[in-house]
Write a structure and sequence with these properties.
The protein has 217 residues and is α+β, with helices and mostly antiparallel strands. The protein is built from 4 helices and 6 strands. Helices cover 19% and strands 33% of the residues.
Length: 217
């Protein structure tokens, strides 16, 4: 499985800064890492923030299920980073080797806004053989937990959100796939609207068991 990396970055365009690894994200869902405690506050501001985050994921799932990818692009920031590493079978204690490294090794996805936009444009041609006709999709997001809020709950500008997902796909008559895993997202408030600034997808498969990967998690 080859990696998908932002085309402008690969081309060496000096106007496109090279993505940087956020050290806070390096251990997201890593084996052996201590899970962060979810943020909690007994306040109306916190309840409203949680409701906004849940509403974001419900709307995003609707868009992805209906293949409304052009509208989905409006939910991501211009500097979005979308990354899904490969997973390895490792000996006990060798947790650092369990998944491929960001920016330096192969990944299912390693993309910015440029290549995400190109991916969407390709799917919208109606000529993409692997998705003609389009698959029937269901995205389920659960265990949603806020683990970081900056600068404060009352004036939140960015939130880190961990979740689990189930994605079901049925293509043609009898082609079925079920994907399960975990996500860590960074949502950013832009003009009063929450947008996806970063997504790390950890698919719980060592060998990818589907024929293709032409959808988003």
């Amino acid at each position: 499985m080859s990696s998908m990396t932002d085309a402008e970055t690969l081309a060496g365009n000096p106007s496109v800064p090279r993505p940087q690894i956020d050290p806070r994200r390096r251990e997201a869902f890593a084996y052996g890492a201590i899970p962060p405690r979810p943020v909690f506050e007994n306040s109306l501001a916190f309840l409203l923030l949680v409701q906004q985050v849940h509403a974001f994921y419900a709307y995003e799932a609707d868009l992805l299920d209906q293949w409304r990818y052009a509208e989905w692009l409006d939910l991501v920031t211009d500097d979005v980073r979308y990354w899904a590493p490969l997973r390895r079978n490792v000996r006990y204690g060798e947790w650092d080797l369990e998944r491929t490294e960001e920016l330096t090794e192969l990944a299912y996805f390693d993309e910015g806004k440029t290549t995400l936009t190109l991916r969407v444009a390709q799917l919208r041609t109606g000529l993409h053989w692997a998705e003609e006709p389009l698959s029937r999709m269901t995205h389920v997001v659960t265990n949603i937990a806020l683990t970081e809020v900056t600068p404060s709950i009352e004036a939140a500008e960015e939130v880190v959100v961990r979740s689990r997902f189930v994605v079901y796909r049925n293509h043609l008559e009898d082609e079925e796939n079920l994907f399960l895993g975990k996500k860590e997202d960074v949502l950013r408030s832009v003009g009063g609207q929450w947008k996806l600034a970063r997504r790390a997808v950890f698919l719980d498969q060592n060998v990818f068991l589907a024929n293709n990967l032409n959808f988003l998690f």
